[in-house]
Design goal:
The protein has 48 residues and is an all-alpha fold. The mean pLDDT is 83. The chain has one domain.
Length: 48
């Protein structure tokens, strides 16, 4: 299951290589990516 999550997060290129200097910016980008992934999965589940 962990590999699946890594694959989902790897679609966000900015997270693959850490360009952000501040840790809080990097963590914020991770939270945004997680929210986008959750919204996509929720909308997909609703359509099925």
């Amino acid at each position: 299951m962990v590999e699946v999550y890594h694959r989902w997060f790897s679609r966000f290129r900015k997270l693959l290589v850490r360009y952000e200097k501040l840790e809080r910016s990097y963590i914020a980008l991770n939270h945004i990516a997680a929210a986008i992934i959750a919204l996509r999965k929720a909308s997909f589940a609703r359509l099925s």
